[in-house]
Amino acid sequence: MRIPKHVGIIPDGNRRWAQNQGMTKEKGYESGLDPGLYAYRQCRDLGVDEVTFYGFTTDNTKRPSYQTEAFTKACVDAANLLINEGAALLVIGNTKSPMFPKELLPYTKRCEPKEGQIKANLLVNYGWHWDLNTLAEAQQVNKNNIQENIQSFDISRLDLIIRWGGRRRLSGFLPVQSIYADFYVVDDYWPAFNENHIPDAFSWYNKQDITLGG
Amino acid sequence: MRIPKHVGIIPDGNRRWAQNQGMTKEKGYESGLDPGLYAYRQCRDLGVDEVTFYGFTTDNTKRPSYQTEAFTKACVDAANLLINEGAALLVIGNTKSPMFPKELLPYTKRCEPKEGQIKANLLVNYGWHWDLNTLAEAQQVNKNNIQENIQSFDISRLDLIIRWGGRRRLSGFLPVQSIYADFYVVDDYWPAFNENHIPDAFSWYNKQDITLGG
């Protein structure tokens, strides 16, 4: 079976899940922590080299503060879970804004992995425009070095993106790395993650052909 | 019903369709011309303001010459069909390469539409890296003006992208304009286009909610 080297995870549907459970919206985020660690472990054990989680975006920070506080805390907790696991964690996002949690500053340089662990990237206060802005400062940009000159240069090309929560859009998720990624949508909300979601996505991915335009 | 303002069309599956019909691969492209004109008219009549067709990319030009000649001819023919219809045609792509057909140079500035017609964009010898390269030359790029400083600045944000041929990936299609687009996949090959495909896609689009990250 052809296993994707790099998997993107868009863990959407936390607020809708919480409302369906009779909770207020912001309560959904902490229920996404266990799925995140499970997903990391499952990808690692299936042979993936790198996993990128969509934490929150600069657009998301326009929401009410009780929500932004809840998803920011969930991102800090997620980073700590991944560090404890021994992942080669990298947190990517706009650190110059007050919305970036200071606790995560040490992880904006990639951590050394423990034996047998893989790369895990967490987008925190990320914006696609912020990511591309550095192209304007680059000395010379050409066909082959765009990836090297964006803020997220240390995140590789995505092979497979899995989005939970039923929506079929990228919502600003790493536009350069997503260019040729196959896009798989799980209708279940992220906190309703189950152990079949990722294997099902991988089975589907295995049936796709890869042409890269050729 | 909520109608998308700007619809992207990825007309994939021409070669697979031709092979299924017992023809050689390159014969599929000309069978995509009638669907293209039908799709333009259908979008226009349903109230869309702008349609963008994915013609061919700089990556596609690495294919054997009998194929590149066939899809280049199909793009020239498609442009002429749209001009005859009276569309506000704009052809976008790297004109400095020999792979760009000279016949289309006059349309790299947007044509004036005839009464009742809409914008039609055709990507010809387009490359996502070529599109983003001009960011490096821009004097000052910020969150709000990335779109204004890319090569495809005259193509607006996409609301809905419809891809024929079953594949679920963007393959370099306008990465900046695709950021928040909803993505709908038709399993039929493009030359097997039928009149229900676009209305079905619009019905699905009508059920999506638009949050733009908020």
Automatic annotation (TrEMBL), chains A, B:
Keywords: Transferase. InterPro entries: UPP_synth-like (IPR001441), UPP_synth-like_sf (IPR036424). One of its GO terms (biological process) is polyprenol biosynthetic process. It comes from the Bacteria. One of its GO terms (molecular function) is ditrans,polycis-polyprenyl diphosphate synthase [(2E,6E)-farnesyl diphosphate specific] activity. Pfam families: Prenyltransf. Belongs to the UPP synthase family. Z-FPP synthase subfamily. This is Undecaprenyl diphosphate synthase. It comes from Romboutsia lituseburensis DSM 797. The lineage of its organism: Bacteria, Bacillati, Bacillota, Clostridia, Peptostreptococcales.
